[in-house]
């Protein structure tokens, strides 16, 4: 039986999961594993969440494909146990890398192919221009993200804590260089 605190998190994570592109069951399984102090087997997960063994199995396979759970065996036990990584930063990096692989890279590939096409009229020229803009934005964002991934954790935390201060610093620079006008 889950405590009200854990149950609330698990239920919320299931609902949020459906908004993030995973089903509710997968979200709840992940939330349970994330909060669990020890690895759990499929029977324990099913009992805790009230899910069938087949739903748990499918959910665990999905989480493994996202590299969000670790499979392990415990001494003297033939069952498979699962746990979520302890490090929330590693989880974030894994999620970002998987989303990039599944969503961003196919979009960039499609845009690159589309931009090689010969426009057949004004509508196509307009569409290609818009696709080029989107491609440039996605390339800029992924390049920036790659640079962030290369930072050590402490530097990344410092950068994130700066928040809006970076914008204010750039505004101050613009005032000094441009006499108060933005370039």
Automatic annotation (TrEMBL):
Family: Belongs to the GbsR family.
MF (Gene Ontology): DNA binding; DNA-binding transcription factor activity
Protein name, UniProt field: HTH-type transcriptional regulator
Keywords: DNA-binding, Transcription, Transcription regulation
Pfam families referenced in this protein's UniProt entry, alphabetically: MarR_2
Lineage: Bacteria, Pseudomonadati, Pseudomonadota, Gammaproteobacteria, Lysobacterales
Domain HTH marR-type span(s) in chain numbering: 21-80
Gene3D superfamilies: Winged helix-like DNA-binding domain superfamily/Winged helix DNA-binding domain (1.10.10.10)
């Amino acid at each position: 039986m889950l405590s009200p605190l854990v149950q609330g998190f698990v239920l919320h994570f299931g609902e949020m999961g459906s908004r993030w592109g995973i089903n509710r069951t997968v979200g709840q399984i992940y939330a349970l594993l994330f909060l669990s102090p020890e690895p759990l087997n499929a029977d324990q997960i099913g009992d805790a969440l009230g899910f069938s063994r087949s739903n748990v199995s499918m959910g665990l396979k999905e989480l493994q494909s996202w590299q969000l759970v670790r499979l392990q065996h415990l001494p003297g036990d033939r069952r498979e146990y699962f746990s979520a990584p302890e490090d929330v930063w590693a989880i974030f990096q894994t999620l970002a890398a998987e989303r990039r692989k599944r969503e961003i890279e196919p979009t960039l590939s499609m845009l690159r192919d589309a931009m090689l096409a010969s426009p057949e009229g004004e509508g196509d020229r307009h569409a290609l221009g818009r696709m080029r803009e989107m491609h440039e934005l996605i390339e800029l964002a992924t390049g920036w993200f790659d640079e962030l991934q290369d930072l050590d954790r402490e530097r990344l935390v410092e950068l994130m804590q700066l928040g809006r201060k970076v914008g204010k610093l750039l505004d101050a620079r613009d005032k000094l260089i441009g006499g108060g006008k933005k370039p």
